[in-house]
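From the shared-data thread, chain only:
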Amino acid sequence: MYAFTYHRPTTVRQAVNLLAKNSEAKLLAGGHSLIPVMKLRLGSPGALIDMNKIEGLSGIELKGRSLVIGAMTRHGEVATSQVVKEALPALADLAGMIGDPAVRHRGTIGGAIAHNDPSADYPAAVLGLGATIITSKRRIEADEFFKGMFETALEPDEIITKVSFPLAKKAAYQKFKQPASGFALVGVFVSKRGADIRVAVTGAGASGAFRVTAFEEALKKRFSPKSIEGMTVPATGLNGDIHGSAEYRAHLIAVLARRALAAA
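Structure, as tokens:
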């Protein structure tokens, strides 16, 4: 391992100041994405800012018609929380599908969203529920947050503090796992909240998670698998690799969307 400076702030303000002073610094939350990148020499930040001693960044709370989850809340906590299971069971199901027990008990929701891996599960829930990302500076709507593969709207000195998920009348997540990693070869999150119908996909897009507007329009008439029967997603712009071609992923999107609708 190469040399770097290690910081352990106790407040968000301290962490923001450290980021502002060091353009090469990286935030360390769960570490399941950052540490492997460093070990493989794919990244070599000059400083690490450990978020694990900052108070007030974890926890789950129901506020009116929204479920608010602190950025440092572990996947395992979301998966097993009775509050989440009752308010948004689809979100608890999704968290329970992430990686393996080691990943779920260390990885954080804020870290996963900020990292924006194109095969991660949480971006599908954020887009699929129309969540709001709350940072040290502002509130960012889901549709404005994800900018491309591993890219978000976060500024260099901006830190996610909470994620607010609006409660949905109906919602479900279905995932086809990459067997070795547990990442989504394709994952589809569907939700219905009044007139707001959302279908979000992860794992398939070359630029990360995205919404399928054609499915959403069809589902406005009736929120049912039959409403999108026979509909397909173009393979153009989808990932293709040793695990599945773009055409295969396009087929999976339609299949998993219908399964998710049936589950919802």
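The mean pLDDT is 94.
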